[in-house]
Here is the input.
Amino acid sequence: MNRSSTLVEVSGIVKAFGEHCALNSVSLSVCQNEVVLLLGANGAGKSTLLRIAAGLSRADRGLVDVCREPCVGFCSHHGSLYAKLTVRENIALTARALGVSPQEVQDACSTWGIDKYCTKEVRELSKGMYGRVALARTFLGSPRVVLLDEPSSNLDQEGVDILCSKVSAGATERAVVIATHDISRLQDVATRVVVLERGVVVADSLNNSDRGEVLAQFYGASR
Amino acid sequence: MRRWVRVLAMLIAKELRLEARGKELSVLLLCTSIITSVLVGAGVSGAVLQPDVVPRLFPMLLWIVFLLSTTSASVRGNEHENEGRGYEGLLLCGVTGAQMYVAKVVVWAIIFALNWVLLCSLLGIALDQNLISVAGGLLVVGLLASLVLASLTVLTSAIAASAALRGAILPLVTLPLLFPLFFAGIELTTAVMIVGSVDLSSMWVGIMVVSFTLFGLVGINTYHEVISE
Here is the structure.
């Protein structure tokens, strides 16, 4: 794989919440054309790492260098949506801030199957539909870096299929990091697997040529 | 610059829309204003004061009620941001903290100014004061005060957003910072009640302008840090 164009570079990241050290000198670089599955048990530091990479949280120590052109696509647990705005208003807000055309907004709504719900406030949606709206917003403007935190947790199979096709479709142009527990549904789309354990990267399929070995190591650790 | 203004206009529209739907700030403001006005009106009426004392007390009572209602209501003003962390999506697509802050100040200042008009009317009726002849001057004072209040409370409510006792903490933190506004406001309102208009060259207007500039500069430069983790 050509690793010349690094879009995400975090190095020596340390982050503590009080006495609890969430990340302990974590380093990770992700290149264009890579889709990384970030695995780890609850509390391993996956979300914290993604939030730091997205620029929404500050590391106590370490360097963060992420391509922010035209934006960073980040989908958190919360969805980063305004509950009392409609689906269309939420997506239009991001679209206008990025200068994305109304046609692209319409296309995004159709792709994610949310066009029927455009006039509904997002607080009225099911969790699955809420997740789709959050993902539609995340991919607007074709970000070169996409960071997804548990994107499939509330999605049905159709939603996961759309997510996988969306990730695969632009994979050559972007770097994608997906923090997930949903390995079975997302591993096909991944080109690399990284395992975090108690704030430390314990396995990376970039170093171990066999991805299966890394997954086996993860399954072993999580048991 | 044009893009900056376009995004700002979009954010102002968003704030207005969220307030129109959620009514987080306006309903609390309306309720506290009505309750405190009625209490103050009943208290003053029952205090057996000479009729000529009431006009002299009016500006102070108006300002106490105005500041208490706005600072306590501002606790709810940030709720819609925390519900789904919508602001994070905006920050990620290049919207700056300064733009978000300015948009909120504009909208909150409009709401506070409406509250000022409501309070003047309610207290005017409760204390039997004819304010029609001085309405223009009072409106100018109210607009200035609303801008100062909004520039501070937008910032303090965001700072207190994750505090467990924010309902109690926010007024305690905010009110001491508003002492200059409180004194300037009473002096200006008293002058308006006597003269009928605002002397824009007075020291009290200067205090309000300086407070607004100071709070505004702090808000513009720190809002991003305040709302980020």
